[in-house]
Amino acid sequence: MSDDAIPTGADAGAISTIDKEELLARSVEVVRMWVENGGGGTFIIKPDRLESPEMFGMMLADCARHAAVAYAHELGITQSAAMDAIWEGLDEERDDPSGEPETIETSRRTH
Fold this sequence. Notes:
mainly alpha; putative pyruvate dehydrogenase fold; 3 helices; DUF5076
């Protein structure tokens, strides 16, 4: 991907939710993700919007399956091949993280 292939910035090149209102009507946003060209990622996560870390893990697994469908369609490969590549990337990052997470904002629930 070239530096000018996709606009950059918080809102530039944002994934549109126009015409998705009905689909999202009962939903709440829990994470936003950005990636730098050839670099690291930025993730803004609202953990108070999910009841447990396990639910976040379930969402990641669901996201991976949806991504496999999207990549299969985009790249003309099988969903299985796309899923295998996604798991490979997850395993590589889990085994050897490319960086330490930096907290930019914290909020704590009061119990």
